[in-house]
TrEMBL record:
This is MFS transporter. The chain crosses the membrane at residues 9-32, 44-62, 74-92, 98-121, 133-155, 161-186, 207-232, 252-270, 277-296, 302-323, 343-361, 367-387. It comes from Pseudomonas helleri. Keywords: Membrane, Transmembrane, Transmembrane helix. The keyword Transmembrane helix applies. One of its GO terms (molecular function) is transmembrane transporter activity. The keyword Ubl conjugation does not apply.
Length: 402
């Protein structure tokens, strides 16, 4: 079979919806949160709860899929999105901060299900077509980068409704489309008992945490945490600079595009320069981003730094994932270790979502960037030292990745 099955394009569309809701929440959550929160330092708490519930619901979602299958799970997973839309609309209309938190928590549950689109697209697909299937689904991020911020701007002040209330209400329509897409999926592939038994193999063995595995986890997690902190805080900082919502939306739009568009080429980059150089390049780009933020204070530079932030995230996230996959190749507990990797990423992403307003109110914009700079520098130095030692495991991975 040389062509991707029809369901791959259904997953692509479903992932576009998933990422559109995520982009919309990024664009408006801090602004709405600051308007409804009792204090400015709590303005990103709703967005933090969104990531918290992504973290809490991811493993139960995967277990549910292994029991009832992908199709029914995706159908159920669309329901929290509709709930998020209803509660979010009422939260803005009634000026309720608590309801806003509940809305973003429900959105997090939906995202935890929808994030499995990229894995579902590879089910029972020929080995040679798996990368193509993943790439197509990841491309949904490019669609989201265009649709999400644009939809937010169109709906944010429309028809006499409270600012952004219709943006949340649009989640109901997106949930309906997501539900219909799930109905169109074929009867899917439930994990067999044999596979479940394999997944029960203990992953507690410390020998599994080789240098490459630890590096992979650290790079992807730190990259995600730094990206979340600076992305959210940048939108707040631009608002403090009295930039218009349209300008903030455009900057975030370019940032999201920079996060996902390189995915079409990151695999080729890894093949050409190796995983080590790809990861280090990603960290260096994140460092350049922090330097720009500290050294300048105007919209153009902030927009450029957000683009670099997206690109740096892509190289660290994809590079770290590739390093982990290579390190765990043919390992019977690979699924468990990948789950642990995603849990670490989710923890850092959640911290990155909860802390921007707190950091902005304490150490400020430049202080936050200085902290991120120090963390990225420490990790970059550690990686260079470990790689220069040419450990047996790391050398094997580097050779396998080229």
């Amino acid at each position: 079979m040389s062509k991707l099955p029809r369901r791959t394009y259904l997953y692509f569309t479903a992932q576009s919806i998933n990422l559109t809701t995520a982009v919309m929440s990024v664009t408006m959550s801090a602004i709405v949160g600051s308007a409804l929160a009792p204090t400015t330092m709590l303005s990103t708490v709703p967005y933090g709860f969104q990531f918290l519930f992504v973290m809490l619901a991811t493993y139960p979602a995967s277990r549910l899929m292994s029991i009832i299958g992908r199709k029914k799970s995706f159908m159920l997973g669309s329901l929290p999105l509709a709930l998020s839309g209803c509660i979010g609309f009422l939260a803005v209309e009634k000026q309720s901060f608590l309801m806003l938190i509940i809305s973003h928590s429900a959105l997090g549950i939906y995202i935890s299900f929808a994030n499995f689109n990229r894995f579902a697209a590879t089910d029972n697909v020929d080995q040679t077509l798996k990368p193509k299937a993943i790439s197509l689904v990841v491309a949904g991020g490019v669609i989201a980068a265009a649709v999400g911020p644009t939809l937010t701007e169109i709906l944010r002040d429309l028809g006499g409704f409270a600012l952004f209330s219709l943006c949340y209400a649009s989640f109901i329509g997106l949930a309906a489309i997501s539900f219909l897409l799930a109905i169109c999926l074929p009867h899917d592939f439930i994990v067999t008992k044999a596979e479940i038994n394999i997944n029960k193999v203990s992953a507690q063995d410390k020998s599994l945490y080789t240098t490459p595995v630890v590096i992979a986890m650290a790079v992807a997690a730190l990259g995600y945490g730094v990206m979340n902190v600076l992305m959210i805080q940048a939108s707040m900082h631009m608002k403090h600079m009295h930039e218009s919502f349209s300008d903030v939306r455009l900057a975030i739009q370019w940032h999201v595009f920079a996060m996902f568009a390189p995915s079409f080429f990151t695999g080729n980059i890894i093949q050409k320069i190796g995983m080590k150089n790809t990861i280090c390049t990603g960290l260096i780009i994140l460092l350049v981003c922090t330097v720009l933020n500290i050294g300048a204070n105007n919209y153009s530079v902030l927009s450029l730094s957000l683009i670099l932030l997206g690109l740096g995230w892509n190289l660290t996230y994809v590079g770290g994932g590739a390093l982990l996959a290579q390190s765990l190749q043919n390992n019977p507990v690979a699924i468990q270790m990948q789950g642990r990797n995603d849990l670490v990423i989710a923890i850092f992403a959640t911290i990155g979502a909860f802390t921007p307003s707190l950091l902005l109110g304490t150490v400020g914009w430049k202080g936050t960037n200085a902290i991120c700079m120090v963390l990225c520098t420490i990790l970059l130095v550690l990686i260079c030292v470990l790689l220069n030692k040419k450990t047996r495991d790391l050398s094997a991975v580097e050779q396998g990745g080229k």
